[in-house]
Design a protein that fits this description.
Number of helices: 0
Number of strands: 11
Shape: globular
Radius of gyration: 14 Å
Strand content: over 45%
Structural class: mainly beta
Distance between the termini: 40 Å
Largest sheet: 7 strands, mixed
Length: 121
């Protein structure tokens, strides 16, 4: 089992910045990739960015250049630096990790509770 606790969300004006943090605890030795997703009411959760154990990152095209994901393995924490925020970035942001595999080879997936980001114009 892996527990994820997000922090850093809040309200900001357009053009501002926020840094989200997600700390993992529990069976962290099995962690594979970590990432951030976001969701607005009535819409599906969408990828923001992921980072694997080797530090290789992947971004949703629309987030490239404004968002940066990073990871501190010593602190078991993944970060999302968000710059030049826009009202359309308003969403609940969720941390996700996969850790270990079940007997069918499928990774176990864990989600944080989410942190709200609200960007006003």
């Amino acid at each position: 089992q892996v527990q994820l606790v997000e922090s850093g969300g809040g309200a900001v004006q357009a053009g501002g910045s926020l840094r989200l943090s997600c700390e993992a605890s529990g069976s962290i030795f099995n962690i594979n990739s970590m990432g951030w997703y976001r969701q607005t009411p009535g819409k599906q959760r969408e990828l923001v960015a992921t980072i694997n154990n080797d530090g290789i990152t992947n971004y949703s095209d629309s987030k490239k250049g404004r968002f940066a994901i990073s990871r501190n393995n010593a602190k078991n924490t993944v970060y999302l630096q968000m710059n030049d925020l826009k009202p359309e970035d308003t969403a609940a942001y969720y941390c996700k990790t996969s850790a270990g595999y079940d007997r069918f080879g499928r990774p176990y997936v864990y989600w944080g509770q989410g942190t709200q980001v609200t960007v006003s114009s």
